[in-house]
Structures are given as C-alpha cells and as structure tokens.
Amino acid sequence: MAARTTDRITPDGMKFQRMLKELANKEVRIGFQHGKATEENGADVCDVAAWNELGTERMPSRPFLRKSVDENESKINAFLQSKKKDLVRGVSAEQVLKEIGIFQKDLIQEKITEGDFAPNAESTKRQKGSSKPLIDSGRMRQSVNYVIQKKGSGDG
Fold first, then answer.
1. How far is CA 155 from the centre of its chain?
2. What end-to-end distance do the CA atoms of the chain give, in Å?
3. Residue of 29, 22, 10 lying closest to 144 (CA atoms)
4. What is the secondary structure of 104-150 as a DSSP string?
5. Is 38 helix (H, G, I), strand (E, B) or coil?
6. What does the alpha-carbon distance between residue 123 and residue 137 come to, in Å, rounded to a whole number?
7. Distance (Å, rounded) from C-alpha 83 to C-alpha 97?
8. Do 109 and 138 touch, CB atoms closer than 8 A?
9. CA proximity to 114, closest of 126, 132, 127
10. pLDDT tens by residue, 22-32
C-alpha cells in the first residue's frame, strides 16, 4: 500500500496567496491624472502632456511617455524581476506597486528633462526664453505621478 500524503499550506503560504490575490485586483497607473494640476494659463497638465506626447497640428510629437518605456525596456524588466523576488520574500503587494510607481515616475521625469526631441519653434523660444522642449515652468514634469487603484476602476 502506498503511503498517503496530504498537502498542507503553511501560514506563510496562506499569506503569500492572499498577497497574490490582492495584487491581482490592483493596478498602478503612472503618468498624469486629469484635474490634478493646471498650467499657469489654466490648461490641465494632463492635456498638455497628451498634446506633447502625440503632437498637434502646430506642434511636433515629443513622445516622452513612450520613450520612457521603449528606451528602458531592459532596465524595467530587471526592476520587475526584483519586485517578483520581493513578493516571494514577503514584501506587501501595496509596497511593490508603490515602488513600481515611483520607478516609472522617475523614468518619465528623466525623459522629460533629458529626452532628445524636436526643438522648439523660434516663436516658442522667444516666448519662454529657452530652446528646451517640454520644460517651461517645470509643472508638467512635477505633475508626473502614480495612483494605485482597483483593477478596471477607470480613471485614476
């Protein structure tokens, strides 16, 4: 007769399962939250970011959001692998999501500051006194943020 074995989940295993369930129900959104910041002229920073990211009829695209991901793929993957290890070691899902938010926020802000984009038009240079695209008052860069929310709950 074969010996019968019974699997038993340890308290740590149960805690890990709860954490995975919590993580499966949450998401972190990084970027700009509509209605949270405005430029001096009253324009919503979220709109200004979209106009810069995608371009307009009168302004070239300066894809700082896409480039913050595309140009850092290996760095992002390595970071996410380290966060998986943190989860296994018992770091909370909430803490891991916060760290992911901060990490990507930093990449976006770095791309706004250091990115190589189409130069400003001469009229823009005269108006703001700088040839550096995406940087005027610094409000857009400072407004990059993240929110942790229930998955599928809509705008953050």
1. 14
2. 59
3. 29
4. HHHHHHHHHHH---PPPPHHHHHHHT---TT-SSSHHHHH-EEEEEE
5. strand
6. 17
7. 9
8. no
9. 132
10. 888 899 999 99
User: Is the torsion defined by CA of 24, 111, 116, 79 positive or negative?
Assistant: negative
Using the structure block, give the residue that is written with the tokens 């700009």. 32
Token representation of residue 26: 């949450």
Run of H or E residues at 93? helix 93-114
- Check whether 155 has a pLDDT greater than 60: no
User: Is the whole-model pTM more than 0.85?
Assistant: no
Cα separation of 56 and 52, whole Å? Answer: 8
- For 154, the token pair is 């809509």
pLDDT tens string 51-104? 999 999 999 999 999 999 999 999 999 999 999 899 888 888 899 999 999 999
Tokens found for residue 74? 């290996």
